# Entry
Amino acid sequence: MTESEFDELAEATLEAIEAQVEDADGDLDFDMSAGILTLIAPNGTRIIINRQPATREIWVAAKSGGYHCGRKGEVWFCNTTGETLQALLSRVIAEQGGGDIHFS
# Structure
């Protein structure tokens, strides 16, 4: 994957996550700035999602740790847990009191 292909795919992924958070019936707030998506739970804890062009990964920082997600075929997978990016986000959002959001 070229850097420009990665940039397009990562940006589309972050925008899709943002749209699904916005459409969810929870109290999770969000802010997108300079390619970094910050999710803010009602208790003030944050989940940071950003892209890492050098490694062609999307990184997630949560209270439970830092996660690096690489692309395999059509899906982003966490290199540590094996979860899809969507399953990882659903889990860490729930763990941080951000509600029950299921990503597609």
Observations:
- The chain has a mean pLDDT of 93.
